[in-house]
Amino acid sequence: MTFAEIQRAIEDLAKDDQTKLATWMANRDRAMWDAEIERDFSVGGAGYGLLENARQQVKRCESRPIAEGPRRP
Fold first, then answer.
1. N or C, which end of the chain is more exposed by having fewer CB within 10 Å?
2. CA-CA-CA-CA torsion for 55, 59, 65, 71, nearest 10 degrees?
3. How far is C-alpha 34 from the geometric centre of its chain's CA atoms?
4. Tens digits of residue pLDDT in 4-54
């Protein structure tokens, strides 16, 4: 099917089926995003180094909660 055919098929769906489809797509997107974040911040992932750097800063007391705001000189 082409994208245009899929669009037409969606438009032809009953409103409650369109809602079910939108909900399914949103849940699917969230699951895919969660899986990507998990991969990125697992050992060997693209963001793992950033995570380790943040952990080390906390251990060295070089960071603090965001709610406290930036350090003042």
1. C
2. -110
3. 5
4. 999 999 999 999 999 999 999 999 999 999 999 999 999 999 999 999 998
DSSP letter (8 states) at residue 47: T
List, in sequence order, every beta strand (DSSP E) within 1-73: none
Say how far apart CA 63 and CA 68 lie, in whole Å.
10
**Count of CA atoms in the C-beta half-sphere (13 A) of 5:** 2
Token digits of residue 2: 């082409």
**Burial bucket for residue 33 (CB in 10 Å: 0-12, 13-18, 19+):** exposed
Alpha carbons 38 and 43: distance in angstroms, whole number: 10
- Tally: H helices and E strands in the chain: 3, 0
